[in-house]
Specification:
Elements (H helix, E strand, L loop, with lengths): L5 H13 L2 H8 L3 H15 L4 E4 L2 E4 L1 H32 L1 E7 H6 L1 H11 L4 E7 L1 H9 L5 E4 L8 E15 L14 H6 L3 E3 L4 H12 L9 E3 L2 H9 L5 E4 H9 L4 E2 L8 E9 L6 H12 L3
Parallel strand pairs: 3-4, 3-5, 7-8
Antiparallel strand pairs: 1-2, 5-11, 6-9, 6-10, 6-11
Family: Belongs to the LysR transcriptional regulatory family.
GO molecular function: DNA-binding transcription factor activity; transcription cis-regulatory region binding
InterPro entries: LysR_HTH_N, LysR_subst-bd, WH-like_DNA-bd_sf, WH_DNA-bd_sf
Length: 299
């Protein structure tokens, strides 16, 4: 004997409550012949006569009364299950977990989130601000639905989409000797000078190392190693030494002359910014909407 389906049980219960196959069929928006066939199949399936059919209507048999009682319990659990699933789905679809590297998180993501919330005000967004390597790990392990990174080479094991292009600058405090140079630095001079850098795994640091490697040189040990873009910027403003940071992070300081840009000859410090998500998954819902927002924003 196979278990009856929930819709057949629901039909049986309604017939018992309404006293008519036609009324129960109308309630479920099915035809009366279809309802009759379903009930006949249910009786054959269970091996029991469940309904007493007369010209005045239908009433449950004694066995049918017992089965109707059990069916009500089953349907209550089924309805509870489906309500719970719908609640979980609504919660999942209205929640978006984003991980972003420091520069992107501080200077680009706030605008993207503002635009997203204009279109989807019900979305609850959680933002984890970390370095590019940690963003990729969060995406790989399902801890973030969407990530944004600034490494020159996209990581393996994730789906990748180009979002924008960023440019990094060598910056120094106004009193630093580099601020007074009348010629561009050479890549060798930059590599030979200890500068303030971000930690390993940072896209900013990896971009600098890659650019120097492309011209055949390797940087010396750093002057300071700090764990955020803001910390590096503050150290340079305080006069601790030069650094290499995104133009996004220092544009205001340059305009207000708290920092000085130091040109470097023959060194490409541009870098792509990418969105990443778990490999093999197709973005949907708020994650897809945020990616579209980021890609529409000015480059």
């Amino acid at each position: 004997m196979t278990a009856p389906d929930s819709e057949s049980l629901r039909l049986l219960v309604l017939v018992g409550e309404l006293g008519s196959i036609g009324a129960a069929a109308a309630e479920l928006r099915i035809s009366q012949p279809s309802a009759s066939k379903r009930l006949n199949r249910l009786e054959r399936q269970l091996g029991l006569a469940l309904l007493e059919r007369t010209r005045q209507g239908c009433t449950p048999t004694p066995a049918g009364e017992v089965v109707c009682g059990w069916a009500r319990d089953v349907l209550a659990h089924v309805d509870g299950l489906m309500n719970g699933v719908r609640a979980l789905r609504a919660q999942h679809e209205s929640k978006l977990r984003v991980a972003a590297s420091m520069t992107v998180a501080e200077y680009l993501v706030p605008r993207w989130i503002s635009l997203l919330r204009e279109a989807l005000p019900e979305v609850h967004l959680e933002l984890d601000v970390t370095n590019s390597a940690a963003v990729a790990e969060a995406v790989r392990h399902g801890q973030a639905d969407l990530g944004f990174i600034e490494t020159p080479d996209p990581p393996e094991g994730v789906s990748v989409r180009y979002v924008a292009r960023d440019r990094m600058l060598v910056i120094a405090p106004p009193g630093h000797p580099w601020a007074k140079l009348r010629r561009p630095l050479t890549p060798g001079e930059l590599a030979a000078t200890p500068v303030i850098v971000r930690e390993h795994g940072s896209g900013t640091r990896e971009t600098l190392h890659r650019a120097l490697a492309d011209v055949g040189t390797t940087p010396v040990a750093p002057l300071l190693e700090l764990r955020s873009t803001t910390a590096v910027r503050n150290a340079v403003v305080a006069g601790a030494g030069p650094a290499v940071l995104s133009t996004l992070a220092v544009a205001t300081d340059l305009a207000e002359e708290r920092l000085v840009e130091v040109p470097v000859a023959d060194l490409d410090l541009r870098r792509p910014l990418h969105a990443v998500w778990r490999s093999g998954l197709q973005l949907t819902g708020p994650a897809a909407a945020l990616l579209a927002t980021a890609m529409r924003a000015p480059d």
